[in-house]
Amino acid sequence: MQYADLSVVKHRLHLGAPLPFNVRNADKTLLLARGQQVDSAEHLASLLERGALVDLSELITPREEVLKARRDQLPKLWSGALTKLSAAMDTAPEPGFCDALVEAAVPVQALIERDPDLAIFQVVQQGAEANLSYGAQRATQTAITSMMVAQRMGWEPAQAELAFKVALTMNLSMLELQGVLAKQSQPPTPEQREAIRSHPERSAVMLEQAGVTNQAWIDAVRHHHEVEDGSGYPGGSRSTAELSSLVRRADVYTAKLSGRLARMPLSADQASRQMFMKDPGHAITAALVKEFGIYPPGCMVKLASGETAMVIQRGTTITAPIVACLTTPSGVPLSKPVRIDTGVRPNHVAGVVAPGTGPTPPALEKILQALAA
């Protein structure tokens, strides 16, 4: 085995976060196991002073870890990656925000690449098992959607990643307010309306203060609520760049999937139908609807044979997804999910189960483990 000083890779170590590798003493004996934490700067300094080592074979990058993982390991990686991304967002506009955001985005983007179906699952199930605030949840939903739609449209990788970052940061200045509004039964107050109207400009300023120099990023955040017909805000501009146009549509779509106290979430098929009916001729909307379809991973469906199931993978056509069957035709929960291809009759999908009305599914990790057994 070959070893390197911990000091060489200390940038991979985050205080209070699980270690991505084992830390060994100078004599190669184990000091801290992978998954344990370095809780303070003093703790880290003491490790460096004693010449702590790491095994070079363990130093795979976060992207490599994702791409090498089994499918049933991905839900846990999603949870950790989204939680870390949310923590990075909370640092804005402090120095180091940009670096923290870019670093935290890498594993999420790798997870999208590794399994797009499970990426859609995170959007439809709103972060699944990750511990996110409402504002962070909405930001990550929109960022994942934006990147996937950009890829569907054939954008260059750098542009698709930029769409991800724009969507993630366009509401930086009102993340807390989003959570308040989600729990509020009455209409926004005048003060809240003003905060909503001004948030594109305030978010753009926060990015500038944090050291973002990519003008396309800043401009897209500043104009992400402008609409081609001039009905948007804050300026009512009819001239909208494709980047801001894409993230706005992704935001509208994911908002339809997200419930509030005063508004029930729409099912995925309803959300897609509304998007298409409102904006039928736009290429971005068409790409979004095609990417997610009417039965995207994460939605609950009723089969023609009577069973209730959860979609876990898109199929060969938009009407024939792969599902994990959760109940018998009479509604009795199964002891173990069963994989079904709905493209084979009589297993076809009869309809979508409204959000919150179906059986409580097992954790995604458990479903994937059962289907892989």
Q: Summary?
A:
By secondary structure, the protein is an alpha+beta fold.
What percent of the residues sit in helical stretches (DSSP H or I)?
A: 40-55%
The total count of strands amounts to 9
Q: What would you say the CATH architecture of the largest domain is? A: Orthogonal Bundle
Low-confidence stretches: none
Characterise this structure.
There is one protein chain. The chain is an alpha+beta fold. It has three domains: 3-59, no CATH class; 64-292, Hypothetical protein af1432 (Orthogonal Bundle), CATH 1.10.3210; 300-372, no CATH class. It is built from 14 helices and nine strands. The strands form three sheets. The chain has a five-stranded antiparallel sheet with strand order 8-7-6-5-9. The longest helix is centred in the middle third of the chain and has 20 residues, at 190-209. The protein is globular, with a radius of gyration of 22 Å.
Task: Describe the structure using short key phrases.
373 residues, Hypothetical protein af1432, five-stranded antiparallel sheet, two-stranded antiparallel ribbon, 9 strands, globular
